[in-house]
Amino acid sequence: MNFYDRFVENKRLRRFILLLIVIGMIYLFRSMMSLFLLTFIFTFLSVQLVRVVQKKFPRVKPIWVIAPVYLMIIALLIFVIANYVPQLISQTVKMFTSLQKFYESKEVRSNPYLDIIYNYLQQINLDNQIKAAVSQVVNYISSVGAVGFNIVISFLLSFFYTSQVEQMNAFGRQFLDSKYSWIFSDLFYYGKKFVNTFGVVLEAQLMIAVVNTLLTTITLLFMKMPGVLALAAMVFVLSLIPVAGVIISLIPLSFVAYSVGGIRYVIYIVIMIVIIHLIETYFLNPQFMSSMTHLPIFFTFVVLIVSEELLGTWGLIIGIPIFVFFLDILGVHSIGRKTPKRRIKFKKSL
């Protein structure tokens, strides 16, 4: 038996080497990580929806399930863009116009206290700071555009995969019967475990999104904001992004709040977002993740902190699945089965 045959027979060693190769490949393509993860999330949710419908209606093809859902999502996005983007633009223009009128008014020019503030702003070179801030905003907008492009591509890829999920599964099974079937069987082994853990985390994030949306909707109703249903739908979609989604929702909510009650309502919205952000970060995330993954809250909290530091926002999404994934490989803990309690017996000393 040559070296290759001995390597293939040693299942533990070959799986370990393959895992290292996969980690290296992920590191090399880390710039495309957002595209990969978004595609995986959209595809996973779509396939789960198809499976749920097919349990009650086995003869229904995936295309008849997924096509109406995707059309509804596109229609909702078009509705939000057509109705709220012009409003956001107009409110932004009004804010800058009001600031300009306030600055050019006679009261401001003749006020000695405001004149002192103006001279101080001139001394700290405010113009250059504003230019630097504008350039940062432009960079942020370009990064948002890149994220939007990734979302659109992931959305399309998930639709194509889910609409032909049976054909994709049949095509994938052919690799398990190829000459190097051991590679694909090991990849299938790792993929199945990761999908299992990732699915649990997605369920937890959905529960967090529901709680965030309820808290935000109650606040918007109390403030008598217009278009509460559309705003609630936007908050729910953004809440699927852990932690960052709540902060992103602050921008459109602030503009709408300014149009209703001025700067006072904007302050209310900021306070609401801060409170919800604290609730999500320090209560909902650890509590739901712990209950769904059967991990102690302490470990869940530590993993969220470390993964966010190492991987950024995506670390809050994939940190827990990666941690449970490695625990499952090591045979320490697995989602879906309770960790057996071992009794430690002590021998009596003679």
From TrEMBL:
Family as reported in the entry's similarity comment: Belongs to the autoinducer-2 exporter (AI-2E) (TC 2.A.86) family.
PANTHER family, per the entry: TRANSMEMBRANE PROTEIN, TRANSPORT PROTEIN YDBI-RELATED
User: Which keywords, in A-to-Z order, does the entry hold?
Assistant: Membrane, Transmembrane, Transmembrane helix
Q: Name one Pfam family in it.
A: AI-2E_transport
Q: Output the superkingdom of the source species.
A: Bacteria
Give the way it sits in the membrane: Multi-pass membrane protein
Set out the biological process GO terms recorded for this chain's protein. transmembrane transport
List cellular component terms (GO). membrane
Query: Where exactly are the transmembrane stretches of this chain?
Result: 16-43, 63-85, 137-161, 204-222, 229-253, 265-284, 291-307, 313-335
Q: Where in the cell is it found?
A: Membrane
**Name of the protein this chain belongs to:** Permease
